[in-house]
Amino acid sequence: MRISDRGRGGEGRERITLVPENVDDLWHLSHVLEDGDRVSGDTTRRIQRDDENLRDKGGQREHLFVTIGVDDVEFARFANRLRVGGEIIGCSREDQLGRFHTLNVEAHDEVTVEKRFKPDQIDRIEAAEEAAENAEVAIATVEEGEAHIHTVAQYGTEERFSATAPTGKGEYARPRSELFAELAEALGRMDVDAVILAGPGFTKQDARDYVEETQPEVAEKLTVVDTAGVGDRGVHEVLKRGAVDEVQTQTRISTEAALIDELMERIATGEKVAYGISEVADAAEFGAVKELLIVDDRLRRERQGDGDWDLDVNDVVESVEQQGGDVTVFSGEFDPGRQLRNLGGVAALLRYRIQ
């Protein structure tokens, strides 16, 4: 994320001009925007002609600069765009004011957001700006007969390659080299800065040797890590151990994996923890919250008034921050966020027990 400009808007609002540089930045922005915010940017719009002599039912597309009063935000992950819909409250053509329009924001599009930013939203934007220098990382996990490749993004991990090839003896067994070849070729096609090769036993070492022989450029990016599993389980182990942090100085999901593991361990042993909005709100009121954990989509829903919590989530967040606690907003698209969602979408690591 690149911040082009910051200033004051009307009625106490702050104005920030941003340039999202990748799909991660679009995802971050989707969790900053709320109903009633103002978003401005360049767009095209089909203009209907009213001239009796020029009856063009289809209309013509014109380039416009619009300001949208936000009432709908959709992160279209697989389309690599953010859709921001609402009423046009400012436009380079006055006859379009009051009409509904969807602003399609893609990577490298400059937009201006005007709103009363909350502290965690400013933190999110600034963290995305700092993350622009992070390395792009792939995690390859391999064991006998099975190999996977996941890419690491700030919104979660995504499987990009999966292959099974029974090895050993038997009618359908294949040489190990065939599995290694598929894995090496897939890695060779990926544009990443680093590759973590993980898995149980010695299979990953043999896979590394094969990659060194056939894909020397990929081999230069390799780091080998021991894990007990492969696939999603192996990826979680890699993140938990902080292996990604060695090649990518800041990755939110690595932190989330460690926090959710600590939370689940505390729950299992009956240590200082609260989960569910009622328990967490009580703990915040007593100043007992050391670390507040909340899922991004739940936070957004509650802030927009679409949730079912009977209190203001902003009051809880502000109470924690005012009393020196930290707030971590989890990605709902990654396993730690899904685990947290199953606990009600919010939990807290406490300084001391409150019961």
From TrEMBL:
Gene3D superfamilies: 3.30.1330.30, eRF1 domain 2, Pelota, domain A. Keywords: Cytoplasm, Endonuclease, Hydrolase, Metal-binding, Nuclease. Its EC number is 3.1.-.-. Residues 1-130 form the eRF1/Pelota-like N-terminal domain. GO terms for molecular function: endonuclease activity; hydrolase activity; metal ion binding. The keyword Metal-binding applies. It is found in: Cytoplasm. SUPFAM superfamilies: Dom34/Pelota N-terminal domain-like, L30e-like, Translational machinery components. One of its GO terms (cellular component) is cytoplasm. InterPro entries: eFR1_2_sf, eRF1_3, eRF1_Pelota-like_N, Pelota/DOM34_N, Pelota_arc, Pelota_N, Ribosomal_eL30-like_sf, TF_pelota. Its cofactor is a divalent metal cation. GO terms for biological process: nonfunctional rRNA decay; nuclear-transcribed mRNA catabolic process, no-go decay; nuclear-transcribed mRNA catabolic process, non-stop decay; ribosome disassembly; RNA surveillance. The N-terminal domain has the RNA-binding Sm fold. It harbors the endoribonuclease activity. Monomer. Belongs to the eukaryotic release factor 1 family. Pelota subfamily. May function in recognizing stalled ribosomes, interact with stem-loop structures in stalled mRNA molecules, and effect endonucleolytic cleavage of the mRNA. May play a role in the release non-functional ribosomes and degradation of damaged mRNAs. Has endoribonuclease activity. This is Protein pelota homolog. It comes from Halobellus salinus. The lineage of its organism: Archaea, Methanobacteriati, Methanobacteriota, Stenosarchaea group, Halobacteria.
